[in-house]
Each structure stands twice: as C-alpha cells, then as structure tokens.
C-alpha cells in the first residue's frame, strides 16, 4: 500500500510503497544510497547490488536529480537518519527521468534562485519555511476560531484606499477606476457590526517602490476586527495570539526549525504580556541614545530595531501622533494629538509585524477626517453608515504574515516567506 515518508513510523519492519523524487544520491559501487523526498519528509533508500535484480539496480543508476519514481522497501529504524528511519529498497519503478536539473546541490545567486522559484521551493530549506508558514496560518485560524471569531472575506477589487493613496495598485473595473485592496479592514468593520468578532485572511497589495528585506508588493494579512473592544483589549488579543502561534510552531515544526538552524531558545521566551511603551517614550529612548529624531516623525527600521533590542519579546509602541497615522484611527480623548494605535515590533531586528488601532466611532469626527485627508466622501458613504446606524467602540489589527514568518524562522528577507514573491522588478514566475 502506498504511504508517505511522514508515516513510516507506523510501518517499522513492513514492506511499503512510496511515490518520491530523488534529490540526491551516492554510491559505493555495491550499494546505492538514494536521497528521497515526497513532500512530507525525506528518507534514504539503500539499494544493495546483490540483493536486487540487475534491472532494478540499473534503473536506480539511471536516476538523475529530481527524477520521479515509485519505490518499494522495508522500513528499518536507524537513529543516525534525520527521520529516524531508512528504507531497504527491494524494487523501484521509474516514473520520469528528470532532465538536467538547474538547481544543482551547490550555492546559487538569489536572482537565479528566484528565477527558478517554481523549482527552488522543492529544496529542504524552502519546504521547511513553507511548512512553518502553513503552521502559522493554521494556528492563527485555530486561535481565532476558538475565541469566537468568524472568517469573513473582504473584496479584493475596491473603489478607494484604506492606507493612503500613495501606494495604490490601480486597475480598471469596466469603465470605473478600481484598486487592489491594501487592507480588508474597512469591510471587516462592517462585518464586525454583523458578527461581533471577525477576521479576514488574504492577499493585500501595496505599490511600494521600496526594495527592503521587509517589503513585498503582494503580501498576506490576517485582519481581526472586534466590536466593543477598546485599545487595551486589542493589545491583549494580539499578544495572546502571537504567544499561541509561536508555541504552536515550536510544538509542531521541530524538524523544520532544525533544518533552518533556528535558535529556538529565543522563541521559547515569547510569552504574554508583551512590553508597552508610548511613542513619546520611544522618542525619548532614541534621543537619549543620541539618535537625531524629532517628535512627529515616523520610525524607520533602524529606530524599530534599536527600540526592540532591549526586549526579548515583541514590543508594543502605542499612541503615535495623529498626523502620521491613518484617517480611521481614534484619537486619545484626553490627548487628541495622539491616536489609540499600536505597532507590534518583533525582536531580533524584525521590525513591525502588526499594525492596529481603535477606530473612530464618532460620525462627526469621521466626516472631519475625510475632509482633512481629502478623501472623496461618496466613496466612503457606506463606511459612514457604520457610524450612523448603531456605532460602537471597536478595534482591530493587521498581522503581516510574511514578516511574522521571517521572524519566527529567523530569515534575512521576506522573499523566502511566500511561495511566489512579488517584489519591485519581479513578477516572475
Ligand atoms: N486591519 C488593520 O488594522 C490593518 C491596517 N489597515 C493596516 O493595513 N496596517 S499596516 O499598513 O500597518 O499593515 C499591517 C501589517 O502588514 C504588514 N505589511 C504592511 N506593508 C507590507 C509590505 N509592503 N510587505 C510586507 N508586509 C507588509 C506589516 O506587518 C504591517 O504591520
Ligand atoms: Mg503599519
């Protein structure tokens, strides 16, 4: 019966059949060692010349890197093997002899690997990253579903902006102008008035002409939105969520974290509550550290790194100046020049992974913000209705999936965190 490498522990001593690709091999003349993978894991197939038909031996010899085959063999425990098992091969059937594989088992440049991303994702490292990405998604949804959140899907084609008009992706919607969504938030606010606690999970788009290790043009965001939850309640949900996600990856992705060589002791420390400093306190820290920084400016990556390095878990920076934040953010009632928002800054220099805030729930103030931000009221008439018909205090946040994956995996660049990265000057493959 055909099984998978991940389930070999259920078949110790048994003869099994696997569908695999051979990603490497070595031979001692009388024994061939086939490095096999099937997407669920890797195992070494051992072929002994005098124990199989010549035809099987020759078929094995003909295998090239990434050739596909069925292989039969007896599962044998071997604690020297990463998976704990080896396969004593008794038969094999070639499915396809791969052409000369472009990604040889050696170093390649980033652009070459990105040009071959459709093949690069087969490598053990990239597979490990994508498995951890999948676990992060699973654990986020599990946490939110258990906490009474409902998944709601916002539109991707939208008539207006949410996060400013400088990085909108414009397209045509028949005769009308349309924009790829920057954030599902505004629609999540409508959904929260219907279902209480909701979240969206999907691609979002920012035409940002910035080539940094944190920015993608298309990235995936999880956007929870909660009716009757205030600023502090928002932070508490975020820190519990991140604690749960990190613990889930530590529990369920041990092998993948080992493949990446990730120092998991740093992840073990990620426990709520997370430290909170205000924007004012952050400015004070920077200025005392000799950084030339003016109140009212936004933080850049170096500032976030310096501020976070004093902490071993994510840091909330709260209450930024109203003037540098989005139109929808609720001002602090006692100090209107700052808003009830927070960025969550990951440790180890990974920067902002979450942006969130309490939303303006006062109709007059929101009308005023549309004028201040020169936003066409007609495009937001539906959004104003949320304040005309039973407005309530509500808050939410956007978790950037790729930046979270980069931090938890300990990666240098977000391009490895998404199956097919869209970056400045790259939309292929
Ligand atoms: N529902 C909400 O309240 C979300 C809110 N409307 C929003 O979009 N906030 S954000 O612009 O800070 O983006 C949120 C997160 O989205 C990530 N982000 C934001 N922009 C990017 C780019 N360009 N590449 C990768 N990741 C990005 C990053 O982790 C940010 O913290
Ligand atoms: Mg932000």
Automatic annotation (TrEMBL):
Quote any Pfam family the record assigns. Answer: tRNA_anti-codon
User: Does the UniProt entry include the keyword Endoplasmic reticulum?
Assistant: no
Reaction equation(s) it catalyzes:
tRNA(Asn) + L-asparagine + ATP = L-asparaginyl-tRNA(Asn) + AMP + diphosphate + H(+)
From which residue to which does the signal peptide run? none
Listed A to Z, the keywords are: Aminoacyl-tRNA synthetase, ATP-binding, Cytoplasm, Ligase, Nucleotide-binding, Protein biosynthesis
Q: Which GO terms describe its cellular component?
A: cytoplasm
Residues forming the Aminoacyl-transfer RNA synthetases class-II family profile domain are: 130-429
An example GO BP is: asparaginyl-tRNA aminoacylation
Keyword Cell cycle found? no
State its Enzyme Commission number(s): 6.1.1.22
Which InterPro entries does the protein's record reference? Answer: Aa-tRNA-synt_II, aa-tRNA-synth_II, aa-tRNA-synth_II/BPL/LPL, Asn-tRNA-ligase, Asp/Asn-tRNA-synth_IIb, NA-bd_OB-fold, NA-bd_OB_tRNA
Please, which domain of life does this record's source organism belong to? Bacteria
Q: Which Gene3D superfamilies match?
A: Bira Bifunctional Protein, Domain 2, Nucleic acid-binding proteins
Location in the cell: Cytoplasm
Query: Which GO MF terms does the UniProt record name?
Result: asparagine-tRNA ligase activity; ATP binding; catalytic activity, acting on a protein; nucleic acid binding; transferase activity
Quaternary structure, per UniProt, is: Homodimer.
* Family, per entry: Belongs to the class-II aminoacyl-tRNA synthetase family.
Classification via PANTHER family: ASPARAGINE--TRNA LIGASE, MITOCHONDRIAL-RELATED, ASPARTYL/LYSYL-TRNA SYNTHETASE
Which protein, by its recorded name, is this?
A: Asparagine--tRNA ligase
- The scientific name of the source species is Shimazuella alba
């Amino acid at each position: 019966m055909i099984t998978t490498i991940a389930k070999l522990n259920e078949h110790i001593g048994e003869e099994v059949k696997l569908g695999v690709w051979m990603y490497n091999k070595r031979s001692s003349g009388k024994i061939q060692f086939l490095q096999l993978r099937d997407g669920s894991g890797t195992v070494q197939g051992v072929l002994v010349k005098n124990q199989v038909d010549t035809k099987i031996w020759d078929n094995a010899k003909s295998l090239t890197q990434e050739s596909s085959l069925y292989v039969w063999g007896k599962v044998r425990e071997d604690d020297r093997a990463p998976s704990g098992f080896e396969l004593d091969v008794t038969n094999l059937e070639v499915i396809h002899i791969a052409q000369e594989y472009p990604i040889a088992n050696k170093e390649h440049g980033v652009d070459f690997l990105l040009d071959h991303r459709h093949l690069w994702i087969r490598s053990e490292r990239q597979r490990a990253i994508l498995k951890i990405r999948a676990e992060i998604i699973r654990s986020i949804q599990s946490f939110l579903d258990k906490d009474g959140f409902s998944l709601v899907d916002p539109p991707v084609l939208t008539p207006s902006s949410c996060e400013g008009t400088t990085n909108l992706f414009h397209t045509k919607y028949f005769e009308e102008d349309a924009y790829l969504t920057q954030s599902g938030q505004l629609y999540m606010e409508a959904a929260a008035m219907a279902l209480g606690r909701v979240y969206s999970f999907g691609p979002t788009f920012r035409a940002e002409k910035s080539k940094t290790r944190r920015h993608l043009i298309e990235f995936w965001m999880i956007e929870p939105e909660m009716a009757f939850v205030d600023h502090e309640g928002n932070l508490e949900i975020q820190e519990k969520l991140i604690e749960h996600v990190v613990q889930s990856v530590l529990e369920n992705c041990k092998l993948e974290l080992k493949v990446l060589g990730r120092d998991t002791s740093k992840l073990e420390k990620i426990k709520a509550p997370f430290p909170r400093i205000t924007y004012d306190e952050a400015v004070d820290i920077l200025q005392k550290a000799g950084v030339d920084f003016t109140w009212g400016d936004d933080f850049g990556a170096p500032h976030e790194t310096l501020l976070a390095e004093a902490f071993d878990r994510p840091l909330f920076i709260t209450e930024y100046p109203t003037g540098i934040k989005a139109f929808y953010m609720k001002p602090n009632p006692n100090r209107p020049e700052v808003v009830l928002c927070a960025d969550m800054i990951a440790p180890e220099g990974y920067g902002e992974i979450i942006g969130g805030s309490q939303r303006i729930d006062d109709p007059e103030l929101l009308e005023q913000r549309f004028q201040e931000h020169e936003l066409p009221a007609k495009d937001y008439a539906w959004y104003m209705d949320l304040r005309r018909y039973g407005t309530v205090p509500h808050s939410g946040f956007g978790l950037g999936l790729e930046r979270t994956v980069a931090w938890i995996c300990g990666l240098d660049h977000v391009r490895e965190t998404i199956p097919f990265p869209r970056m400045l000057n790259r939309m292929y493959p």
